[in-house]
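Predict the 3D structure for this chain.
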Amino acid sequence: MSKIKYDCAKCPGYCCSYDLIEVSNHDIGRLVKHFKVSDAVARRRYLKRVRSAGKDITVLRHKKDEVYATTCVFFDQDERRCTVYAARPHVCRTYPDASRCGYYEFIRFEREQQGDEDFVPSA
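Done. Predicted structure below.
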């Protein structure tokens, strides 16, 4: 893999706003261990079942967000960081699965144009 050309610490958590952040049973087990709760409690508090592309999947719940419409239930909206980083799902661990992140490149360009290192483009 090529050298990583993005810095998640400089992003306001765009990937955490994806509607469907799918989790596996292994991911759920990691959350159960992290929170020291039962499987049933973890599923009720943090997850929901949805139908996507003709199949039922388990995804992370969301909460309202001022930057994006909603973000993952585990996203700290003040710090713009994951609160369960060590227990995050596999899809989050492997994102963006490339040496570049399109959103990071977009936001970096916008910040350069605005002359503001913390600028977050909105609709």
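The chain has a mean pLDDT of 93.
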